[in-house]
Design brief:
With about 400 residues, the protein is an all-alpha fold. Helix content is about 85%, strand content about 0%. It contains 14 helices and no strands. About 0% of the residues have low confidence.
């Protein structure tokens, strides 16, 4: 196989899967938006909304570390297809339930939980497939393309969900989710994915496999330090997604349309940075770029907190949110590429699952910490706390990375 043929093969295989996953993500985002909007408009209950959010996070917290063992044991292609179809079938069954009956509100929470179980297996399986298809020197570019399409799907999904919700019953919208899952599974099914051999010294026992995956991750001190730093940052940063509407409505006192623009620009910033990174290609100093991304998140959070509550300041807030979204991908893309480059392929499923569990733990912990503070002192203060803590954690990690470099 010539170099040109090889490049054409991996690009065709990767983009086939990535496009299919983008279609699935659009359908899932639209269905998720419609489900949550229906639950909010029907109940008006903060308690039920909190419970629905908990159901969406619990599966990753409980099953995440263990799911990685099965992902590494089985063929990742089949795990990803099965998980995606499971999510689609849950949507299809609930669509039939909605069409023939009026379901209780708790059933929506159950659906969100079941969909999340599928995601526990699907996301790390897809992430672990990428380095099997993409040459090591092209992983940054490939992750940039993937994040570009995913950011676009995150932009389009809620917009599509809102538009469909206005003209179609919820049962019909759920069918779109199933259709997206079928498209994604079909593109993955027609793509040849290499198999992975197990570790030579690994015992075929569940918990020994789990420990072996964790050991591979912990042995890389730079990765361990940066991952723990990112987890700390995400405890403060992730709750901000719940507070954007309050910043728009309460602090700046603008309309829902303005609030949706903030979300749109955030995703647009993610797309722009993903596109830029994909054109750059390989990044040699990945930890430096990861640090810059986290620094950007901290700086933009502080800038957001300092803006006065005026109409014109809102437009500065919207622009800062675009930079915040861009910073997220500056951190995330080289981080993912480093994992895919350095972790043995046979352990990637477990590593991605463990990291997913850490990030899933960050959100509820952050909400518990931020809720009372934002309620009593206002949302801008939590933006300020996020910025200060993110910059502090990033600075400490920079010192640790420098120490490890000098003593390596």
């Amino acid at each position: 196989m010539t170099q040109q043929t090889h490049n054409s093969y991996w690009k065709r295989s990767f983009l086939t899967i990535a496009l299919g996953q983008a279609f699935s993500l659009i359908g899932s985002s639209a269905a998720q938006f419609a489900l949550i909007w229906w639950l909010a408009s029907e109940t008006g209950s903060a308690l039920i909304m909190a419970f629905s959010g908990l159901m969406a996070f619990l599966p990753q917290l409980i099953l995440g570390p263990f799911a990685g063992v099965w992902i590494d044991r089985l063929k990742r292609k089949y795990v990803a297809i099965g998980a995606d179809l499971f999510i689609g079938l849950v949507a299809l069954i609930f669509a039939g339930y909605l069409y023939w009956a009026e379901p209780p509100y708790w059933s929506v929470c159950l659906v969100l939980g079941l969909r999340a179980i599928g995601g526990v297996f699907h996301t790390p399986a897809i992430q672990a497939i990428v380095p099997l298809l993409v040459p090591r020197e092209e992983l940054v570019r490939a992750n940039g393309w993937s994040q570009f399409m995913q950011s676009g799907a995150y932009m389009l999904g809620p917009v599509l969900g809102a538009a469909l919700y206005a003209v179609l019953p919820l049962s019909a919208i759920m069918v779109f989710d199933f259709a997206g899952a079928v498209i994604a599974s079909s593109t993955l099914a027609i793509t040849a994915v290499p198999e992975v051999k197990k570790m030579a010294d690994e015992q075929p026992h569940f918990f020994s496999e789990l420990r072996a995956g964790a050991a591979v991750f912990i042995q890389d001190k730079r990765l361990l330090s940066t991952t723990l730093t990112a987890t700390i940052c995400m405890i403060f940063f992730l709750p901000l997604s719940s507070y954007y509407p309050l910043m728009s409505s309460s602090h700046f006192q603008v309309s829902a349309l303005h609030g949706s623009l903030v979300e749109l620009l955030y995703a647009a910033g993610m797309m722009a940075s993903a596109l830029l990174i994909s054109t750059v290609g390989n990044i040699h100093h990945k930890f430096l770029v990861i640090q810059l991304g986290l620094f950007g998140i901290g700086l933009t959070s502080i800038l957001s907190s300092l803006l006065p509550s005026t109409y014109w300041a809102f437009w500065l807030f919207a622009a800062v949110c675009a930079l915040m979204g861009a910073s997220g991908n500056v951190y995330n893309i080289p981080y993912m590429a480093y994992l895919q480059e350095t972790i043995p392929p046979e352990a990637l499923g477990r590593v991605f699952s463990l990291i997913g569990s850490l990030m899933s733990l960050a959100m509820p912990v952050g909400l518990v910490l931020s809720g009372p503070i934002a309620e009593k002192y206002g949302v801008p203060l939590w933006f300020l706390v996020t910025g200060i803590m993110t910059l502090a954690a990033t600075a400490i990690n920079a010192l640790i990375l420098n120490y490890l470099k000098q003593h390596s």
